[in-house]
Structures are given as C-alpha cells and as structure tokens.
Amino acid sequence: MRKLLPFLILILQCSAGLSLGAPYWIEPGVYMKYVTYQTKPVNATSPGFGDATLILLYNYSGKLFEIGAFGNSTVTFTISFMP
Description:
about 80 residues, two-stranded antiparallel sheet
C-alpha cells in the first residue's frame, strides 16, 4: 500500500482540476497590466537589452521573440479566448 500512495495522490490531483495550469480567475475579458519605471539613466553603450527596464520573451508557435523597452513602460495582457 505504501508504494501505491504517491500514485494515488497523483491521480487524485490530476482528477481534481487543480493542476490545469490556469488560476480560477482566468476568463475572457480579464487583463493583467505590467508597469516598469526607469530609476537610473540608460547606458547607450550597453549591448543588447543590457539596461532595459522591460524584457519580454514571447513564444509564438515555437518561434521565440525577445522584446525590450527602455524608460517607463506598460504592457497589458488581455485574455480573449479560452480553449
């Protein structure tokens, strides 16, 4: 019975709907806003996004995009579709 206990716990967690990967409040129309503020001067000689206040990695169909912003930045994620 002791060897089956972890397996039974795993089955219980998977069937309880708690491990679906989305919080209960995720639904169409909900949005999250991420705001960054610049607190130091931007170093123009730093390579890439070295002094960026916002770095966003976005994966779209296996293609990875890196988006960077300098200064005060606001990004809003709106949920428009739930499968």
